[in-house]
Design goal:
alpha+beta; Alpha-Beta Plaits; Four Helix Bundle (Hemerythrin (Met), subunit A); Helix Hairpins; 6-stranded mixed β-sheet; Bact_Chemotaxis_CheA; phosphoprotein; nucleotide-binding
Length: 687
């Protein structure tokens, strides 16, 4: 069990989050060839926060690195240099963020932060000097003046003056901090502020005092704010600006004292009976709650509207909901009561089903997370590969607000990365090649995410040279990967060979490809979440890779059907209609296969008893039931003995000792203890 301190846990979480924000900000700025004021301020705030929090946690190498990048953006913000090499600036920021990320991962894995960033820090300082030179030349040419450029030490933000540089003419301040309603762990954030102020001031006193040892101080801070007394040579405006850069800080009240006596008296009074003050504050909170329980309840629920929850707890909650679904089916489908006329019981069962469905929806909504962070990471991959491969590529992301289950999103990051890298390396041509072929010089990769029914599709398309079918077949033969005759393979099956382990059409091993590893990760990871990957290509024009993943790994609404003694479940979202057909509705194609004519259109029939070799007495098509299913515009008819009915089923993966069964995506335990196999409709319509 993880017993890490909450402060360390918060540091790791917030650092990873801020690094992602930082990378996206700087990449967007490079694309736009300009740094907006908002972006500069946000990058500055991120580096300032990481510097302060890492310094407080005694991770000095991270703090020093962050401070260096912070100095760089302070100069950019204050001096507004007219000439900036955005490519070089982006390289530096991304390199720095990678170094911070590596060190944070070490912390997360309980390892020492032993990275030496001396060379990188010198590189940033060199770039800063270059910016100053540009700025100085610009001023000289523009004004012909003799204004001397400020030294590097003076350029450092004045907030960072250590206490030994503070002069004797100190200002005396008290500051009261109030945090946002959705903030939590206020005591730890206050400790960060204290550490931050100690860099530029002499902190004399703060209240509550035991903010680290006593978590109850959070309620006092929420109620009364956090008060701190300090001496500094900074102005009120400088202090306010510095403090407001802290996350979740809503407001700061700053008072200035004009005499040492007045200043000392204020916190001395506070310091005389701190324990009594704490007790009094807590008693006030309790009394307020008793006086107005409804108001307090409403207030507390609002303040806790955003909380962090261990994902393992959500997994456990989802498992319990799944067990409830099975238990409910075991009661309502019990054969001992199915023949009885129990109106009250049936009414209660329907009400129970409705409440259980509501509970399931709420739990699922808690687990849903946006694809945006995963998809935007592809910007970095495209950007880095463009520089190394000397290609120009535009990345377009559509539908990044699409949400999927938390467990699913953890499995799609690596597959997406490998597909995008493959498009960059194999698909998109160089600028010269594209111009020769009459294409725009800039290639394009589009990533689209969309929700269709109970599934999520992620489609990656590039307008490169497409896949060479003959080359893929030859390579498959040479590597002994071709198990069937060429003529028996569809184009899609041939293209899908690029996902086989050890397959590579690259003649030379490069940083990005040629080793025969990577693309097989795509299918392995996607299959873990019951997804499928397909590839389509138009030679010379484009390649499209489609990933279909379930919206959830837990519970679906299914239609249960019977074939002989076997039971199957079809996801309700895939069913178009079900019907009994007459013999005259049956026609045969040129291969003598049975087809159904419905409203002028012919549909092929999949007889489950023949497909899975199941013994049944229902073999004539007019004696059973036909279910028309649809996926991605393709339809097919499934023939079964009978419909059992619609019910919610809890999806379970097939045991590992059972090899992959064609057109089966999982199994489920029904209320009568029967095992039902869940049909994979996307595979069935393509049979």
């Amino acid at each position: 069990m993880d017993t890490r301190e909450p402060m360390l846990e918060m540091f790791i979480f917030e650092t990873f989050d801020m690094i992602e924000q930082l990378q996206q900000l700087i990449i967007d700025s490079e694309k736009n060839k300009r740094l907006e004021t908002e972006a500069i301020n946000e990058i500055f705030r991120i580096m300032h926060t990481i510097k302060g929090s890492s310094g407080m946690m005694m991770f000095d190498n991270i703090s020093n690195l962050s401070h260096t990048i912070e100095d760089l953006f302070y100069f950019i913000r204050e001096s507004k240099p007219g000439k900036i090499d955005y490519s070089k600036l982006t390289d530096l920021v991304l390199e720095g963020s990678d170094l911070i990320k590596i060190e944070t991962e070490k912390i997360n894995n309980n390892k020492d932060t032993d990275g030496d960033f001396t060379l990188f820090i010198e590189k940033v300082k060199g770039f800063l000097k270059l910016l100053k030179t540009y700025d100085e030349n610009s001023e000289d040419s523009g004004n012909g003046g003799s204004d001397e450029l400020v030294s590097e030490e003076d350029v450092e933000q004045k907030y960072y003056l250590s206490t030994d540089r503070v002069n004797s003419n100190l200002n005396l301040f008290s500051a009261t901090l109030f945090f946002d309603e959705e903030c939590d762990m206020e005591n730890i954030r206050c400790f960060t502020v204290v550490h931050q102020l100690k860099e530029i001031s002499e902190v004399s006193y703060y209240y509550p005092e035991d903010i680290i040892e006593n978590n109850d101080t959070c309620e006092i801070i929420k109620k009364q704010g956090f008060k701190i007394f300090f001496k500094t040579n900074q102005s009120i405006e400088d202090i306010r600006t510095l403090l407001m850069e802290n996350a979740f800080l809503n407001n700061v009240d700053i008072n200035k004292f004009y005499s040492e006596i007045e200043f000392s008296e204020q916190f001395s009074k506070k310091n005389e009976k701190p324990q009594e003050d704490i007790i009094k504050s807590i008693n006030n909170i309790v009394n307020d709650t008793n006086d107005n329980e409804k108001v307090a309840s409403k207030s507390l629920s609002y303040k806790q509207s955003l909380i962090s929850v261990d994902v393992n707890k959500l997994d456990k909650l989802m498992d319990l909901v799944g067990e409830l679904v099975i238990s409910e089916a075991m009661v309502t489908k019990n054969p001992e009561i199915s023949e009885l006329q129990l109106d009250s019981f049936n009414k209660a069962a329907r009400q129970h089903r409705k409440r259980l469905s509501d509970l399931q929806d709420v739990v699922m909504s808690i687990r849903m997370v946006s694809l945006a962070p995963t998809l935007t990471k592809m910007n970095r991959i495209v950007r880095d590969m463009c520089k190394k491969l000397n290609k120009e590529v535009e990345l377009e992301i559509i539908g990044q607000e699409t949400e999927v289950d938390k467990n699913i999103i953890e499995h799609i990051g690596d597959p997406l990365m490998h597909i995008v890298r493959n498009s960059m390396d194999h698909g998109i041509e160089t600028k010269e090649e594209r111009l020769v072929n009459g294409k725009p010089s800039i290639g394009k990769i589009t990533i689209e995410a969309k929700n269709t029914g109970g599934e999520v599709w992620i489609i990656i398309k590039d307008n490169g040279k497409g896949l060479n079918k003959d080359k893929i077949l030859k390579k498959a033969k040479d590597n002994g990967l071709l198990k069937v005759k060429e003529n028996d393979l569809t184009d899609r099956e041939i293209y899908s060979m690029i996902f086989l382990p050890g397959f590579s059409t690259k003649e030379n091993v490069t940083e990005f490809s040629g080793r025969g590893v990577g693309m097989d990760v795509v299918t392995k990871e996607i299959e873990k979440i019951r997804g499928i990957v397909t590839v389509d290509s138009i030679p010379g024009e484009e390649t499209t890779t489609s990933i279909k993943i379930p919206l959830t790994l837990a519970i679906i609404d299914g239609m249960t059907i019977k074939v002989g003694k076997s039971v199957f479940t079809i996801p309700v979202t895939s069913i178009r209609q079900s019907f009994i057909i007459k013999k005259e509705d049956i026609i045969r194609d040129i291969d003598n296969n049975e087809m159904i004519l419905i409203r002028g259109e012919c549909y092929s029939i999949l007889k489950l008893h023949e497909f899975y070799n199941i013994k049944t007495n229902v073999v004539n098509i007019e004696d059973g039931i036909v279910i028309m299913v649809e996926d991605q515009g393709k339809a097919k008819c499934i023939f079964a003995d009978e419909l059992i009915g619609e019910q919610q089923v809890v999806i379970k993966a097939l045991p590992e000792y059972i090899k992959k069964v064609k057109a089966i995506s999982g199994c489920s335990l029904l209320g009568d203890a029967t095992i039902s196999l869940i049909l994979d409709i996307s595979e069935i319509v393509n049979l």
